[in-house]
Amino acid sequence: MFLTSEQLAEITTFRHSLHRRPETSGEEVETASAVIDALRAVGADEVLTGIGGHGVAAIFSGREDGPSLMFRSELDALPIDEISDLPYRSEVPGKGHLCGHDGHTATLIALAKGLGERRPSRGRVVLMFQPSEENGVGAAAVVADAKFAAIRPDLVFSLHNFPGLPLGHSALREGPINCASRGLKIALTGKTAHASSPEEGTAPTFAVARLLEGLTALGRGMTVDEHFLQVTITYARLGERAFGISPGYAEVWATLRALSDDAMAELVTAAERLVHLEAEAAGLTVSIEYQDVFPQSSNAPQAVAELRKAMTDEGVSFDDGNGILPMRAGEDFGVFGRVAPSAMFFLGAGVNHPGLHNPDFDYPDPLIGIGAGVFMRTVRNILG
């Protein structure tokens, strides 16, 4: 390991401080400020701020020209109450670092510490602390930001912790690693009436019932392969909380998933066709919105090869993730794959560790050194 135990202890304390003060997507002001202070303390050559919102990027340049490597972590937490007895548990009601983004960020701070002590021989390393991953807008906002043109990378790397894998063991494969997903919000508008005379209004009641069943039926298979499609109803609302009103308004929310962006486009077409057919049959007007849009995320062979070599050199055990990859869950890291060859590996958080987004989840501190070691080895192998 390129850092001493004392340095790792300091970075672990930094992680705990982030854990205490979680901020959700788009609100990462304090988190970004803490990252900026840490990067300036280790002597980054340049620190860019306000990228795609509250994003931060640090640049460490070598003496000679060479490729640019980017390593990405996330800043945001979740709108979920943490349930734990940890001394550093969340101090913000209704918010918690329950996906491990505090640990991913601490891993890049550890990498920054090592790069501050020894720059790459050539090229440059960009550490990207991305905002708003959980709602799917952060990576796209970063890439669209004019500041990103100056740090456009040649290769991009990331990691994500994975409960269910043995602690410190990794999963890494070429090709698809995360499904495309998006939130579908349907609003149906008719006309209210007195509950004793429902025929005088236009209620969306039966349209909602048919959509709950029909949308779900668009799913196909439980195994994530090229045929996989999934529609999960997440919320439904019909009318008002009153006994005297026949409803005139309803909402149905659903999450759509498919292995590829092309398959997602086909699923969107099928879902919208069904919605419009049901609305027309019931005499309703309809509006459709999409939120939390995540493209498919895939690992490029070139980037995977570099991570495999680094893991082998570092003595980190890994396999190709059969049985867990590709994941159904969305991940906006796929946006960076459209910019340059990219790869994410999944670092085991423990076989019986609480799952991601569970209220008792906490990032295992030993993963900070393991992840940073793989990343630093990647830097040395490519840039010297």
Automatic annotation (TrEMBL):
The keyword Transmembrane does not apply. It holds the Pfam family M20_dimer. Its cofactor is Mn(2+). Keywords: Hydrolase, Manganese, Metal-binding. Mn(2+) binds at residues 99, 101, 134, 160, 357. The Mn(2+) ion enhances activity. This is Putative hydrolase. It comes from Rhizobium mesoamericanum STM3625.
